[in-house]
Amino acid sequence: MSDERGGGPRDGRRERGGPVAGPTPEQVAHELTGRVLGGFAVSPDLDAGAVACGACGSSAPDLLRAGDDVVVAYSHYEGRTWEPVAVRCAAHAVSRLTDLDDVRAEDQALIRAVLEPTGYRDPLGGEHPDALTLGGVAVLDCSPAAEGYPD
Predict the structure, then answer these.
(1) Sheet of 108-116, strand order
(2) Are 140 and 110 in contact (CB under 8 A)?
(3) Which residue ranges make up each domain of the chain?
């Protein structure tokens, strides 16, 4: 995204042949703060307020709960919604996207957050008062869609 003066990208990132079209880390943090941790690749237990670390497994003592620190890899699915693709507990945290996922031709982000028991009302009206959402979101790594295209 160019600034009003017609210069390069506002945040100084680059893309082959022009400015990067991906969101800034600040935009990613804003969009993911308060979001329910769940999607196509991550299946939380909305009613129990728990989600599994991809490295620890899904047995009860290893589940992540409110107050736990997590690292989550996200993919901006078709440029419409951020979908979590991997979750890690503090013991299995990573600092680069490539440690959890391949770089693809879509915006990707790796965040650190704290799980919060904020609750969730699903699109069908179901209430999940203990569902986990993301708080204190900090972006650790970003990969704009352009980085997923071969040179």
Answers:
(1) 81-89, 69-77, 108-116, 133-143
(2) yes
(3) 25-148
Give the residues across from 123 on adjacent strands.
none
Taken in order 84, 52, 126, 35, is the CA torsion positive or negative? negative
* H or E, element range at 26: helix 25-32
Q: What is the reported pTM?
A: 0.81
Distance CA 108, CA 77 (A): 9
pLDDT per residue rounded down to tens, the chain (151 residues): 333 333 333 343 444 444 456 789 999 999 999 999 998 889 899 989 999 999 998 777 789 999 999 999 999 988 888 999 999 999 999 999 888 877 777 899 999 999 999 988 988 999 999 999 999 999 999 988 877 666 5
Pairwise CA distance, residues 1 & 96, whole Å: 24
Return left, alpha or beta for 12; rule: phi > 0 is left, psi -120 to 50 is alpha, else beta: left
Contact between 56 and 88 (Cβ < 8 Å): no
Q: Residue 10 and residue 2: Cα distance in Å, rounded?
A: 6
